Amino acid sequence: MDPLSLKKLNALRRERRAAILLTDLEDGRDRVIREGDMVAGALGEAVARAFRSGKSGVVEIDGRNFFLNVHLPEPRLVVIGAVHISQALAPMAKIAGFDLTIIDPRTAFATPERFPGVALHAEWPDEALARQPLDAYTALAALTHDPKIDDPALRAAFEAECFYIGALGSRKTHAKRIDRLTEAGVSPAALERIDAPIGLDIGAATPAEIAVAVLGAVIAALRSRGPGDRSVSA
Hints:
The chain is an alpha/beta fold. It has two domains: 3-71, no CATH class; 76-224, NAD(P)-binding Rossmann-like Domain (Rossmann fold, 3-Layer(aba) Sandwich). The protein contains eight helices and ten strands. The protein has a six-stranded parallel beta sheet with strand order 7-6-5-8-9-10, sandwiched between helices. Strands 2-1-4-3 form a four-stranded antiparallel beta sheet, sandwiched between helices. The longest helix is centred in the C-terminal third of the chain and has 18 residues, at 207-224. The termini are far apart. Mean pLDDT is 92; it is low at 226-234.
């Protein structure tokens, strides 16, 4: 590997940015492609597929073989609200390979007894997220129903271009949420990114079923994203 490519790749990995080390197997030359870089033609299509799947492999383009070594940040799921849904979601998210964090300033809910082995922050979202910022490989699920807790986290998710942003609540509750965030200056394009009512439409009724719906929506968003899909400003 070219030392400059290694230096660039390591820097991107420290920044939690996705990259592919593309090696031409005919001549051994390599280069680093960041997610969002323009790559034309069939090679660009192969690169986009690799970023979505996270799988490395060899592709043949115009009679030449290339190895795409994919480096994706570990996906994170930040849950706002230490509620019953979160209790069901926590073990599921870990099994699915997500680095899970739960944030809730309500100390009666955010306890180690209710969330054993989970990264738990019993503080306001703006405080917790200042230390561990959201990014494009983070999903955010707002589950408290409390605007004082959920809304600041949602605004942070817009600014960070999280790959998934979901919020619990009925359509009526969501309409009020949209009104509040609009008054706070959030753009219509950003507001359209909120998955609400949260999760896949599977008729979920219990906290565990809603957790399944949420995790399914997060996985679908992670695997369907592509370069340029998340660029929405608040």
